[in-house]
Amino acid sequence: xxxxxxxxxxxxxxxxELANYVFSTAHRPHDFEQLIPKVYQAGPKMARIHRxxxxxxxxxxxxxxxxxxxxxxxxxxxxxxxxxSVSVHPKARGEGHxxxxxxxxxxxxxxxxxxLALDGQRQRYAYFGFTPGSEKxxxxxxxxxxxxxxxxxxxxxYTFVPLFxxxxxxxxxxxxxxxxxNEAKPLYVVREDVKACLKTFGxxxxxxxxxxxxxxxxxxCGGNNxxxxxxxxxxxxxxxxxxxxxxxxxxSLFISVPVYExxxxxxxxxxCESFTKERCGSAMYRIFEFANVMEALLTMKAETMGxxxxxxxxxxxxxxxxxxxKEGAVGVTREAHPGADVLSREQAQELIxxxxxxKGTKVPSExxxxxxxxxxxxxxxxxxxxxx
Length: 388
Known about the structure:
It is built from 14 helices and 19 strands. It has helices at residues 12-26, 32-35, 37-40, 97-109, 122-126, 143-147, 152-155, 168-182, 194-197, 237-247, 262-269, 290-304, 345-353, 365-368; strands at residues 3-6, 50-54, 60-73, 76-88, 115-119, 131-132, 135-142, 158-162, 187-189, 204-210, 213-221, 225-231, 252-258, 274-279, 283-287, 310-316, 319-326, 329-333, 341-343. Strand 4 (76-88), helix 4 (97-109) and strand 5 form a beta-alpha-beta unit. The longest helix is centred in the first third of the chain and has 15 residues, at 12-26.
């Protein structure tokens, strides 16, 4: 008989081995200790974030982990979780382990968590109440853009060195610096181990120096993809990218920024050759506490992108919510007006998360007419360093 429970510390190595085996079989060779060091180099204490299916012989046949996170936006702190390491042994597929394990996680987190995030195939996770969401801009900066915009001496003030040097004292200082810049973002995930976070999925980090003084950092993936770029002064943002392209003799550089970082996007749009607006990979979300999530992210959106005044009252998956925006200030109460709109989870999350929800058929058009058009989608975003 299969036992479903949290993994034990003594099963830690077995959890890692199962994930490596399953993902290597299905995709390409995986080494989770190197891919996600914030979890898989943290030691057996992280066994507790894994739910496992254990057969009668004591062997782990499946596992699903949820990494607890704190997400800050709009002056609010949300309790979040990131689902990862969804692994079912090839010989145990079709036995219902994924359904049971993820269902157990959802039941446990109900009432204790504001939202869950994951990256996965949409139909598979729609069964569990997850909806696609999250948008970003990806800009392409090429050599011609740089050559026609800056003189060589203008970019020579910027240089790049490794952010972390394997010197404990220096690395602690660099981590504190990177953490300060991360927590200056409109939306950020609290990073307990900054150094490990900035190595997620093979990211390489570089400290940005201006005239020899550290002013920011870059997280680079795949040689010419900038997953994260943070500087103390915004006027340095685009020249830094141009200098990095030039110093590394790259033909082009791709830079991703969330849609709410409007000043970065505007600065890049003046220089770059092209850009796309797209979903953030296969990002999906399941909201537990609609009032908390809407208050935090609508407030952040009002502060960064601007939203219209208005009021909307609804019951979302049984949760009464009234949202009022007046002169840019967002207020959310856990009550609903008489005659409030009633939406299922699927409808509610489609409405507030999906960039193309207005073209769908899940939410009646008369509901859309009651809501200011710039309120949704909520601008959720997860940097690569915070993924799992």
